Amino acid sequence: MTKILRGWRAGLPALVIAGLACTAAVAADADADKAADGDKPAVQETSDPLEPINRVTSSVNRALRALILNPAVELYKGFTPPPAQEAIGNTARNLTEPVTAVSSVFQGDNKNAEIAMERFFINLTEGLGGTRDVATEKGVVGRREDFGQVLGANGVGGGAHIVLPVLGPTNTRDAAGDVVNFLINPLYPAHSVDNAITYANNKDEIEALSRNALDPYVAEREAYEQHRRYQIENGEVKQDGPTFGKD
């Protein structure tokens, strides 16, 4: 599954506002997404009460990508040697491992938590501060988790879809989850660097997603929401096409 830019999560103030303002709505939505057997979230239509505002924000974001982000990506790829790009990406990704560890514990997955911390310390020490992914070279590979996934795995529905200026698509559950991610690890916004590098590597697919869609807004919205369901179910639900969702 092609990985695409995962939401530009560096904008903590906006996430704090969105997350705290919508916490009550997220909690109220918990039962709505339960399946009949109570075991797995039901597949439902995306809740989008803010669609008129979201559409405007999404259009502005696409314009910003075309005018600012895409040229910046070309400059970055043109002037930054591939080894340096890889080192930057590895460092940013390694800083998210503590969030994966704590989030895994909250889901009762102690094995994945142990792997995350093992990866963190191997890469921090043997990987020259995280610039090399030595853990993967040694076969220590886990599944990335965040607190939005914790909420989803415990029956909290996505709530209202939101498109944040510059940051892109999210929903009330994931916005609140990002606040907790930051509280767990104040360095978590470094994840945005990893996101940006992933965007740079998959820019053409992102542009094709919008360009080839009859309704670019709906295409981006459903790509995000579908991928988040895929992650919450640990890959046990079908996912089609590229995504703006989180890694």
Task: Write a short abstract of this structure.
The protein is mostly helical and about 250 residues long.
List the helices and strands and how they pair.
Blueprint: H1 12-28, H2 51-79, H3 82-94, H4 97-106, H5 110-125, H6 134-137, H7 147-153, E1 161-164, E2 168-171, H8 172-184, H9 191-211, H10 216-232
Antiparallel strand pairs: 1-2
Helix pairs in contact: 1-8, 3-9, 4-5, 7-8, 7-10
What does this protein structure show overall?
Strands 1-2 form a two-stranded antiparallel sheet. With 247 residues, the chain is mostly helical. Helix 4 (97-106) packs antiparallel against helix 5, helix 7 (147-153) crosses helix 8 and helix 7 (147-153) packs across helix 10. The protein has helices at 12-28, 51-79, 82-94, 97-106, 110-125, 134-137, 147-153, 172-184, 191-211, 216-232, and strands spanning 161-164, 168-171. The protein has one domain (12-29, 47-232). The protein is globular, with a radius of gyration of 18 Å. The chain is 60% helix and 3% strand. The protein is built from ten helices and two strands.
